Amino acid sequence: MATMYGINSFQTLPTELVSLVVQELLYDRNSLKACASTCRRWRSIALPFLFPRLCLPDSTAFLRAYQFFVLDAPRAGAGIWQSVREMVVDPHSPLSHLASESSTPVWHDRHCMLAFLRAFPRLKALHCSLAVASLISSSLPQSLITTLDIHGWRYDILSFTKLLRAASGTLRTLTLKDIRFPVCHGGKVHTFSPLQVSMLALTELSVICCENLRFFPCVIQMPNVETLRLDSCDMPFTASLPALLKTLVIQREQVPAHTDTDTGKLLSTDNVVIVCHSTDWLRRRLQHTIAQICVQSRIKHLELVLLGIGEIITHPYLTLADHSAFLQEDGLEEWVVRLHKDGLLERLIITAERSRPSFLQELRARFPLLQRLGILDIQTESPSVLAPPCRRYVESFTGTWTWTRSW
């Protein structure tokens, strides 16, 4: 495209049209580089698509980025820093040992960290450790950061509450992963700081592998949350959530057990999404979710996301019956029909990623009653119909860092 339309032709094309065309080349980096090297005008259009994210998987990468974007700016990083919208700082790397040439700690120097983030004025999403997020908490209200993905381990509850309070007015999406607060002697959980936090802007909350995480309504309030994602959580914290959620996403069998009536409550939600990696406990988990987590009369749509099942059945000598007999033996269809007749469920969606057409045909044949009632929807076009897409970073087997749409 850069060859077809030179600088003279570029003058006649609307900028919006050029941006749409370049956006189609999002994963074609060679074409994007060719566009960026044509002229300055093309460079300004292509750069945001070439460098939308910055991933710093270790301390060496951070030091290089600090040198490039802060110490050598604006000569070195001119243009690139305006393009970065999302940043990942690996929370598991030994960042506490980072040091500059003068042996002055860089990472734990709050001013250096703030200077680094100021080099990216259009940054909207930050993935980092809880310690790093606490360092820059004071600057969050003035930044454009609306998505925060924080990881941690046994951190001070007061600092955590201050972080949430600082971001309460601007944060729309919050992910808490591997955050574990200490337990006092005798098994009692530390309570939060008396600093009251009202996170009015928050609409999506994800809680992954967290322990002793209790949001008391007198301390932390999240009245506008629409989407809640749960993955291996062991403590109830639903009292701070609104009376009605739009979507509840649950992954893995371990889910919050509401054993404390003072801090837990049943969730009222229209849409429930169950992410399934294995299927031998599928129906049991559905029943547990309906009975223990949700108000049954509120659920309208239920979705089962079968991750990887399309790859499992690609063996030429195996059929659907070899891998999904549970769908019939466990009486899943009868159970769903009973819920529907009781007025508790309007639609069942089964999302099978990367599945062959033959698999989908056999899957439909397993649910004749649901087919006749018109409440079954089987699709493979997206990771989920009801749940909004979620981006995470993963480390591949080759040691490189890539971006993926995942749970």
From TrEMBL:
Domain F-box residues, every copy: 10-56
Pfam families registered for this protein in UniProt: F-box-like (PF12937)
The protein's name: F-box domain-containing protein
Organism, as annotated: Pleurotus eryngii
